[in-house]
Every structure is written in structure tokens, then in C-alpha cells.
Amino acid sequence: MPELPEVDALVADLRRRLDGRAIVKLHVPQFSALKTFDPPLHALEGTLVDGVSRHGKFLDIEASGLHLVIHLARAGWIRWRDSMPPVPPKPSTKSTLAVRVVLDDDSGIDITEAGTKKSLAVHVVRDPQDVPGIASLGPDPLTDDFTVDVLAGILSDAGGKQLKGVLRHQGTIAGIGNAYSDEILHAARMSPFKPSNGLSPDEVEVLWQAIRTTLFDAVKRADGVAASELKGEKKSNMAVHGRTGLPCPVCGDTVREVSFADSSLQYCATCQTGGKPLADRRMSKLLK
Question: Residue 106's CB: how many other CB atoms inside 10 A?
């Protein structure tokens, strides 16, 4: 799933490519991806791109006062095309293409989604705040407003909720997903199951530093990387996420996993839980 650093890099890449271009046509082979009807999609045709920005993990292409807002969800992506096929795409359950945006020089972007679980969402709105997911976002962790005190308030308000879930909740902190929450907690040397209200002031400071450092470093690494290479760049720089069974780059212990119904987390027991493995019922059943 694209998270804040990858979406930030996509914004920079698209801003460079789309600046001053006109949108001449939009195609929606996967109509379920379109979540709004007013303004209609065709209202964007003939508009001039004014800018590209980010709200958490949402991409926002502004064109002549309208906004094409894209949430890539778990398996969505943006693919640039220097030239578009002459034949418009047709609806197909076998195709990954959800939306195609054609520009005035015949270049454009394909918004795609792999897999069978369709969660990608495209909105056409007059104001980004009209998108419920944006209106309910928590603070952006890369802004100057995201201070240690702000994080302390968030953790206090979360009560006994586990740190992993609090970091991932978009209404609490915008832009952090499954991968970077694993990386942040590893950098902070904290258990993903640690209660949010159980942190001392010094630990809140450590977690805040881990959030800022992990995300800023990832944004810096992704800067200028082509969209087609962003996923590989992200994966190659993970310390624990997606590295189950491999050695921790800090201490050498084996990276462990806790599996859930539709996701998993990775952690290092030596670095994060005092050497104690976390309970993983699903993996335990498989090992019997």
C-alpha cells in the first residue's frame, strides 16, 4: 500500500509532468472506482492542471477549480504514459486499469488496481474537504505543527489502545500505514502492542523522533525516484516490515511476524519486546 513517502514522491513526479497541461479526456473502465457524481467526471475535460498536492495518503490533482482526488488503497498505483493507445479502454473484469486521464499532448496517467479486492477510490469534488476521508484526517506528521506535545495528546486520548493501531489510524495521524508503523516502532524500540497511554514523557519524545526521522528519511530517499521504481525503493529500505525470517539489521535477531485476518506486522523481539515473542495464534496453528 502506498503510504505518505510514496504518495509524496508521486505528487512531486506528477507535479512536474502535469503542470500547465490540459485534461482532454477521462475514461473509467472500472466504474466502481468513481465515488462521486457531482460534479460529473466529464466536468474535468477541458480544464487546465493548476497543481498536485497530498492530503495524508490522498493524491489531489487540481484543475481549473476542481479536484481529482485519488486514494490508491492497498493495491492501487499511478502509471505514466508518454502516449496513449488510440483505442479507448473498455470495461473489463480482467484489466487492472481503473481510470485513464488523457492530456492535451496525448500523454497521461493510468490509475490501476491489482487484485480482486477493489478498494481504490476516485473523487471529483470542488473542495478536497468534501471527501470524507480527507475531512476526518488527523495531523500530518511531517508538518511543523506536529510537535511532541501534539503526539502526547494523541496518545493520551487513545487510552489503552495499542501503539500499532494508533499510528495506523488515519483520523489520528495522517499518512502512516502498515509498513511505516512497523518501521517507526522498530526505530523507537517499542512493542506494537504497547498501550498508548503507557508511555513516559521520555518515551513519547523517542517515538516522536522515530516518526519524524523514519518518514523524513523515506521521503528524501524517494525524492526523484520514478514511479515505476518507488515500490522497490520502499521495500529495499525496510528494517523489519516484510522481512519475516530475515536478520534484524540492528541486532541480528530473526524478524518475527504476527498475522491477522487480512494483514500482518513484523517486529524484532530483541529490539522491541525484551526478547519475548508476541503471541501469534495463526502462525502457532500452522506450526502444530
Answer: 12
Number of domains in the chain: 2
The answer to whether residue 129 is domain-embedded is: yes
- Same domain? For 279 and 160 the reply is yes
Q: Is 143 a member of any domain?
A: no
Sheet holding 58-63, edge to edge: 49-55, 58-63, 66-71, 121-125
| Cβ count within 10 A of residue 189 | 17
**Up-side HSE of residue 29: CA atoms within 13 Å toward CB?**
19
CATH number of the domain to which 82 belongs:
3.20.190.10
CATH number, domain containing residue 257 = 1.10.8.50
The answer to the question of residue 82 being in a domain is yes
- pLDDT exceeds cutoff 60 at 287: no
Q: CA 81 → CA 7, 87, 108, distances in Å?
A: 18, 14, 5
> Can you give the pTM of this predicted structure?
0.92
From residue 284, give the alpha-carbon distance in Å to each of 4, 194, 228, 267.
Answer: 33, 21, 37, 16
Judge if the upstream peptide bond of residue 39 is cis by omega within 30 degrees of 0: yes
By DSSP bridging, strand 255-259 and strand 66-71 are unpaired
Q: For 32-84, how does the pLDDT look when each residue is reduced to its tens digit (9 = 90+)?
A: 999 999 999 999 999 999 999 999 999 999 999 999 999 999 899 999 999 99
